[in-house]
Design a protein that fits this description.
The protein is of the alpha+beta class. The chain contains 14 helices and 21 strands. The chain folds into three domains: 220 residues, HUPs (Rossmann fold, 3-Layer(aba) Sandwich), CATH 3.40.50; 83 residues; 96 residues, no CATH class. Strand 18 and strand 19 form a beta hairpin. The longest helix is centred in the middle third of the chain and has 29 residues. The protein is globular.
Length: 446
């Protein structure tokens, strides 16, 4: 259903929006930004405000809508967004989520697909900034949802104003603006928006939480109060992240082959909360994890590390092994799957390595796969090239990506190994590119 009204009260001004964007500076000259636009009031207002901001700086905005294909009306709604935005000077494109759709956890799957489609579009065109329309009520609902799940400090800080990925920044400039002001911004310009019926479906936890807001507000827990609480927790989270980054700079060394050397001495004298965060960060990096390991297991490992780790332990798909006063952190080879690949294909293998299989690997016997090198693979490589050496510790070698065909190992980029004897004939290249960096920009509060 589309809505159109004429109330001018409370509209967000260009100057006000420009002030909200300042925390994301500096931008490149003539910045190109992408606005994620679902057609709802929040994202439509974002596109309008962002276009004026970019135009004043000689930049441009592309509005992207994702058609998830979950409702019959979704394609028509996405087209309507384009018809509304193009007369305003905004370029609009629709991205479609194709393939089979899940029957459970649909919203979570749709969210992952949406971010993947948006991120891929930006990466292919060199766009560095994806701007999202989350606003104050969204922040309050996120806080309550995470409170209900028993989240700690990081979760209760809710959404960050900036989220950095390996290829772009996700910006949320409107976390302090209530939904009513964004609707007023559209009304002032006589612009319609779309009401998604799923936003009224009580089957979704966020919708149920939204329904509780009036009751909570009557008890003093208004969306504004909840968002302020999340912001205060966000500042505490940012302070801890800065301390964690300083500790990791002292204690951890990352090798380009994807393993980490950890010095337990700085860990032992750090505040426990900081040490736990540092240990989790190391496991996430070496294990290709998106989320930290479970707190109970993390605490057990941390206690052993500060007491002097005497034998190996596992956490988050990684092995932690004491070696000559340091701790070697490597991926568990047994936890790594095998991927079938084709010549010319690029892949993000095991969420750790960005690999490309070159056309020179075409027409191999038995097809091509990428999997962990393992002990047998290392023995095969060492037999072929005895002078290869042991620059990489054995436990780390076993988790390296290896390209194989029906005859065995063809290529191990991190070892510089190629089975082909022809000069300059490379079968596979790649670099360590985990989901997260060891340290990152601190949590940003809007």
């Amino acid at each position: 259903m589309s809505r159109l009204a004429t109330d001018r009260a409370g509209a967000v001004t260009a100057a006000e929006f420009a002030a909200l964007m300042r925390i994301f500076e500096p931008f490149e000259p003539k910045p190109h930004l992408v606005a994620a636009v679902s057609g709802g009031a929040d994202s439509m207002a974002l596109a309008v405000l962002l276009r004026r901001w970019a135009q004043a700086r000689g930049g441009a905005v592309t509005a992207l809508s994702v058609d998830h294909g979950l409702r019959r009306a979704s394609a028509a709604e996405a087209a309507q967004v384009g018809r509304t935005l193009r007369p305003l000077g905004l370029t609009h494109q629709v991205l479609r989520w194709r393939g089979d759709k899940p029957t459970a956890n649909v919203q979570a799957a749709a969210r992952r697909a949406r971010y993947a489609l948006l991120g891929d579009w930006c990466a292919r065109r060199g766009v560095l900034h994806l701007v999202l329309g989350h606003q104050l009520e969204d922040q309050a609902e996120t806080f309550l949802l995470r409170l209900g799940r028993g989240s700690g400090l990081d979760g209760l800080a809710a959404m960050a104003a900036v989220t950095e990925t390996p290829t772009l920044r996700l910006l949320r400039p409107m976390l302090g603006l209530p939904r009513a002001r964004l609707e007023a911004t559209l009304r002032r310009r006589g612009l319609p928006w779309i009401e998604d019926p799923s936003n009224q479906d009580p089957a979704h936890a966020r919708v149920r939480m939204r329904g509780l807001m009036p009751t909570l507000a009557a008890e003093g827990l208004s969306p504004g109060r909840l968002a302020v609480t999340a912001a205060r927790l966000g500042r505490a989270r940012a302070a801890l992240e800065q301390s964690t980054a300083r500790l990791l700079a002292q204690a951890a060394v990352v090798h380009p082959a994807g393993f980490v050397w950890l010095d337990p001495a700085p860990m032992a004298v750090a505040a426990p909360e900081v040490g736990l965060r540092a240990l989790a960060r190391v496991a996430m990096l070496a294990g290709g994890l998106e989320y930290p390991p479970r707190l109970e297991r993390l605490e057990r490992l941390y206690e052993r590390v500060v007491a002097g780790l005497s034998s190996g332990m596992t956490l988050g798909g990684c092995r932690f092994m004491p070696i000559s006063g340091r701790i070697l952190v490597v991926r568990e080879p047994a936890r790594i799957g095998e991927n079938s690949v084709r010549a010319g294909e690029a892949l993000h293998w095991d969420h750790r390595f960005a690999l490309r299989v070159h056309q020179s690997a075409r027409a191999r016997r038995g097809g091509l796969t990428v999997g962990a090198l393992g002990t047998a693979g290392w023995a095969e490589v060492r037999a072929a090239e005895p002078a290869l050496g042991n620059a990489i510790p054995a436990p780390a070698r076993h988790g390296l990506p290896a390209l194989r065909d029906g005859l065995g190992v063809i290529s191990v980029p991190q070892l510089g190994y190629e089975r082909s004897k022809k000069k300059r004939l490379t079968m596979m290249t790649g670099s360590f590119l985990p989901r997260i960096s060891l340290t990152a920009g601190s949590f940003t509060v809007a």
